[in-house]
Amino acid sequence: MITFVALPILLPFIFIISLLVFRSDRLAGWLGVFGSGLLILLSGYLFILVQKHGVIALQMGGWEAPFGITLVVDFLSAIMLVVAALIVFSIAIYALRFLPKTIRLNRFFIFFFGLTMGLNGAFVTGDVFNLFVWFEVMLMSSFVLITLGRTKEQLEGGIKYMSLNLIGSLLFLAGVGLLYGKTGTLNMAHLAEILKNDNQAILMNTSAVLFFVAFGIKAAVFPLYFWLPASYHTPNITISSLFAGLLTKVGVYTFIRFFTLFFVHDQQFWHQLLLITAGFTMVAGGMAAAAHYETRRILSYHIISQIGYMIMGLGIFTPLAIAGAIFFTIHNMIAKTNTFLVAGMIAKARGTFELKEVGGLFKQSPFLAILFMVPAFALAGVPPISGFFAKFILIKAGLENGNYVITAVAILTGMLTLYSMIKIWNEAFLKAQPANEYASTPFKKLKFAEYFPSVLLGATSILMGLFAAYLFDFTMNAANQLIDPSLYIETVLKG
Amino acid sequence: MEIILAIVVGLLYTVGVYLLLRRSILKFIIGLIFMSNATNLLVFLSAGLVPGSPAFVQAGSGSSAPLADPLPQALVLTAIVIGLGIVVFTLALKYKFFETTGTDDLDQLKKTDN
């Protein structure tokens, strides 16, 4: 039963191997959908298991913690696994119809599962160095995915994406080295136990700063986000949506994990820094999104703006705020992927991502308009869809804790979000189609496999809004578990 | 010995950062290699140097002689392998980029910005 903890890593690996053996593209599509479907079932099972036990830990290879590598699933990991599996599943279906003929499905799914493996590994590992390895697995797959089309823009975007992320990885590794030098352990639970009552914990700041910059690059916070808008709009929309939903959120996950579990010293400084970063991230991303007229660029900048909210929750650091940050992360992963999927459908229908070139889609296809409306309303925070509750919890936590400035910034950024979404709505759906080369393209009716992923994610967003109380209870439990990690430590070290 | 190696780590970082700031993509990649090696050395040094001592002893020998910590060595081995894979990929990407655009100048990479 407990060995199931290793399966989120093992399952994608099995599919990579089978894709290497069976090279047919037809089969690759089926394997991709089947594999990611299995992943949903598996993470759902783990989710139920965690609700029963609180925290489950697996000592890899029978080496006892803290000497071996431990895989741990707690509430936060479990919910991240489920949401990631859901996104991976929708992208697998979406890829069947939206990947161009120049990209072979077999190649795509090999690296798709590579990315999934790295992602799941990062969510379940309980060891800092092991986390580094999973990050590299994930990054390597994403480097290949982003340059898979081999056009000039993709190679250029790939170089920018790769170089900045590699510098981030080097800083991460340097942080690991210093951490080991000072504490003599890399097991997260053991680190938490050592640093909990250590009055010299302030010495950890040298490593904490390195980790802060490294995760800041991965999570694309101000001022370290420049790789994201330079690269996310270059690859095929399938790959952009995959990245948009998952990659930066792993950075946020590690932020939450590190700064609640063992970097809990010198809180005043770190929380202040996190809040300042969060505020600038929100505003910079929101403003830049407002200035653009290409769907993918608007949405890419908008990812950055939303990362700010998650970091804000961590910076306020009350149980309610952390619950809000987790709620927001889940909501954002789903809604953000969905907007990218819809952007892909608009581009497929009209042949371009430029908003100035398209229009009149509301008349052509009211169904597509509804598909866009759900995630757009979710991101803008219209009740009763998921985004409203996510923002509400964060703002309530901010006001309760007296962080008025960041709360005001968060509310104003909400306006910017609304503005970007209205811009896409007005330009693509409401205004008349301008007379240009795209006007004569006949509107193709969407097929089931094309709109199903978006329907699935949209329905999840709405359900998350309707059953927000249950989800909030769960994220609250997760937050309490993060604030008081004694169960986590005990399960890993003595279990 | 540790002092000397610490200075070497610093020097390698300096060289790496200097190369990262050059305009050529190839020099940029060489800079990454320098920084990656500096980081590897830093991880290796993290447990301190214990010259002439084994990392493993027989079980139950009860020897109180100083031991070398095997963990950073294992970590650095993994990091070197990962670093190698990444350097190979960056070089391949740089080659492909040069083939399609014919430029090695980072200042020409402005098309996907803003």
UniProtKB/TrEMBL annotation, chain A:
Record keywords: Cell membrane, Membrane, Transmembrane, Transmembrane helix
Membrane topology: Multi-pass membrane protein
Main localization, broad class: membrane
Compartments, record wording: Cell membrane; Membrane
Transmembrane segments: 6-22, 29-48, 68-96, 108-125, 131-149, 161-181, 201-227, 239-263, 269-291, 303-330, 367-390, 402-422, 451-472
GO CC list: plasma membrane
InterPro entries (alphabetical): CPA3_Na-H_Antiporter_D, ND/Mrp_TM, Proton_antipo_N
Origin superkingdom: Bacteria
Boundaries of every NADH-Ubiquinone oxidoreductase (complex I) chain 5 N-terminal domain copy: 67-109
Ranges where the NADH:quinone oxidoreductase/Mrp antiporter transmembrane domain occurs: 126-417
Record carries keyword Cell inner membrane: no
Family statement drawn from the similarity comment of this UniProt entry: Belongs to the CPA3 antiporters (TC 2.A.63) subunit D family.
Protein name: Multisubunit sodium/proton antiporter, MrpD subunit
Automatic annotation (TrEMBL), chain B:
InterPro entries linked to this entry: CPA3_antiporter_subunitC, NUOK/Mnh_C1-like
Pfam family, one: Oxidored_q2
Membrane topology designation: Multi-pass membrane protein
TM annotation in the entry: 6-21, 28-50, 70-93
Keywords: Cell membrane, Membrane, Transmembrane, Transmembrane helix
Highest taxon, organism lineage: Bacteria
Subcellular compartments: Cell membrane
Family affiliation: Belongs to the CPA3 antiporters (TC 2.A.63) subunit C family.
Name of this protein: Multisubunit sodium/proton antiporter, MrpC subunit
Organism: Mariniphaga anaerophila
